[in-house]
Design brief:
The chain has 7 helices and 6 strands, in the order αββββααββαααα. With 238 residues, the chain is of the alpha+beta class. The chain is elongated, with a radius of gyration of 20 Å. This is DUF3788 family protein.
Length: 238
């Protein structure tokens, strides 16, 4: 259950919001826009504790919507202390149902600000990745200048320095697999599918390249956009 909560949290936060992810390198992850913290996650071995701080306007909105929340969330709200900067709600996330309610608290705190990728010239791989946004793609969608920027972002996120491989897309003469099936499509074939996205188990860890778990790692908002989102299932709706 913790893995599912972890994955779904990152899917929501990265898919809905463009925020810096700041960590203490130990057991804390903050999602911030400038100096404003939207969400803090404390990482424990057996649970995640989310901290959401409501100012006066957010508390007033919660009171109006209170009846739509479970007693579990209402009790956390009622028993949380209010300081000069707001009501501090430390909520233990024990299930996906609780996470769904916390998503609504976060949306009270801040409206989603993630702008979706343009899709007019989108090129999708059979694994669901956006080829046209990929540093390896040789289809003319990325300028040399932007490719260099991507190299810097990808290196910061993945700690890899060699991004020289080029690919013209699935099934093309310039595909990086040289007419062989990649590991993702081998997996799909074993399950009787021509593509990963046609598989009933998609998305899965075999088909996706980017980590979507809660971890104590700092990542800039634009690095999330360009070094992670192109390589996750359906770009989390973007």
């Amino acid at each position: 259950m913790l893995n599912k909560i972890s994955e779904e949290t990152m899917r929501f936060m990265r898919g809905k919001y463009r925020l810096d992810e700041l960590s203490d390198g130990k057991n804390e992850l903050k999602f911030r826009q400038g100096k404003k913290t939207i969400l803090t996650i404390n990482i424990h071995e057996d649970k995640f504790t989310f901290l959401v701080i409501f100012g006066r306007a957010e508390r007033e909105k919660f009171v109006q919507e209170r009846h739509n929340f479970s007693k579990y969330i209402q009790d956390y709200y009622d028993n949380s202390k209010t300081y000069h900067d707001g009501k501090w709600m430390f909520i233990d996330v024990t299930s996906l149902d609780v996470l769904d309610e916390i998503k609504r608290l976060i949306m009270i705190k801040k409206k989603p600000n993630r702008k979706p990728f343009p899709k007019e010239n989108a090129v999708y791989g059979k694994c669901g990745h956006r080829c046209d946004l990929c540093i390896h793609f040789a289809g003319g969608t990325i300028s040399d200048e932007f490719r260099k920027e991507l190299e810097d972002r990808l290196t910061r996120v993945w700690n890899i320095t060699d991004w020289s491989m080029r690919c013209s897309g699935c099934g093309t003469s310039g595909c990086h697999t040289n007419d062989e099936l990649c590991d993702q499509l081998k997996c799909a074939k074993e399950k009787g599918c021509d593509t990963c996205v046609a598989c009933k188990e998609y998305p899965c860890s075999n088909a996706t390249a980017a980590s979507s778990k809660i971890e104590a790692k700092s990542i800039l908002a634009d690095d999330v956009t360009w070094a992670i989102l192109p390589f996750v299932p359906n770009q989390y709706g973007n």
